[in-house]
Design brief:
Layout: E1 2-11, E2 14-24, E3 29-33, H1 40-47, E4 55-60, E5 63-64, H2 69-75, E6 76-79, H3 91-101, H4 109-119, H5 135-147, E7 153-157, H6 165-179, E8 183-188, H7 191-197, E9 200-205, E10 208-214, H8 215-222, E11 225-232, H9 238-243, E12 248-253, E13 259-265, H10 268-280, E14 285-291, H11 295-304, H12 307-314
Parallel strand pairs: 3-8, 3-9, 6-7, 7-8
Antiparallel strand pairs: 1-2, 1-4, 4-5, 9-10, 11-13, 11-14, 12-13
Helix pairs in contact: 3-4, 4-5, 5-6, 11-12
Length: about 325
């Protein structure tokens, strides 16, 4: 659905993005993740045809963004970080106006507007002035304008920035409802947004792709070890037995004195030996579970160390 090849953008001597290469298939929900200033918004503007690249190409549904911009815009819905709203218009009038701009046939205007309002739960405020709405509702209106022409691709740039926790949850639910119907690119630096809505992640740092994989795949690639949480009734003696095992990388005792975090080689044999040792120690095993590598751990490591370059080369 989306193909990006050797995409670069320079502002004079400053390089915003450098040689980006990635593709997004039909129906995928992909998080485009990176710290502020990493090049996310620049990339989104180029994909949607709002900005020309210095070099490289972007294709949407087989159409080149710059050779066939009208065809691409027909297939893309875009919600920029600041929604393009006319504050003195009523919600329904604004959406009708946007639908006309996006060349929705007159015979389908009413249906298109009503469908966008329904999908974004704007029914109670459809006749209100946009400027009088809360920020959460204005964000919904921005999302409605992005889907009013039934696009195949939805590009969302920081869709929950500045919203309160309740509004964030509401917008997140809207994105989840749309995810099964559209190809979605969610550009953000807010990690819970990606975990809640995306299946695959592209992490960009300093204008370059640091890693690209599923959340689970990134966790495996980030470390050759696994972590376990262990809680026992009688901790005396357990530490020495576990520390002596082959493949143990670290042993951390928790403040309660009965719990531990153990890191060991990522092998089934090491996992089995660890569990067996704790059980046979007679310590009274109360809890034994794997600790997944969090997206926050992955993000921080990729954007603050040279590890990003190593993983990017493997992508």
């Amino acid at each position: 659905m989306i193909e990006i090849s050797q995409l670069s953008k320079r502002y004079g001597p400053i390089s915003a993005i450098q040689n980006l290469n990635f593709s997004i298939g039909k129906g995928e929900v992909v998080g485009f993740l990176g710290p502020n200033g990493a090049g996310k918004t620049t990339t989104m503007k180029i994909i949607t045809g709002f900005m020309a690249p210095t070099s490289g190409s972007v294709k949407v549904a087989g159409f080149d963004v710059f050779e066939n911009p009208i065809e691409v815009k027909k297939r893309i819905g875009y919600l920029p970080e600041t929604p393009p709203l006319y504050m003195d218009m009523r919600v329904s009038d604004y959406l009708k106006y946007v639908a006309e701009l996006k060349d929705v046939p007159k015979s389908k205007l009413t249906v298109a507007v009503n469908d966008a309002i329904e999908k974004t739960s704007l029914g109670p405020v459809r006749n209100r002035i946009i400027g009088n709405l809360s920020k959460g509702f204005r964000q919904r209106v921005g999302l409605a304008q992005a889907i009013v022409h039934s696009p195949q691709v939805l590009v969302l740039d920081e869709p929950t920035v500045g919203l309160d926790p309740k509004q964030v949850i509401e917008v997140r639910h809207l994105i989840q409802k749309l995810a099964g119907q559209l190809t979605v690119i969610l550009s953000t630096h807010i990690l819970p947004e990606v975990q809640a809505t995306c299946k695959r992640v592209i992490i960009i740092n300093k204008g370059q792709i640091a890693a690209e994989d599923t959340l689970e795949g990134l966790g495996h690639r980030m470390t050759d070890a696994r972590r376990f949480f262990i809680k026992v009734r009688r901790p005396q003696g357990v530490e020495s037995q576990v520390r002596s095992l082959k493949g143990i990388k670290s042993f951390k005792k928790m403040e309660d004195g009965h719990s531990f975090e153990v890191e060991l080689d990522r092998t089934d044999e090491a996992n089995e030996v660890l569990a067996e040792t704790v059980v046979k120690s007679g310590a009274g095993l109360m809890e034994f579970r794997s600790i997944d590598v969090s997206l926050e751990d992955i993000f921080l490591k990729l954007t603050t160390t040279d590890h990003a370059a190593q993983l990017g080369a493997q992508s």
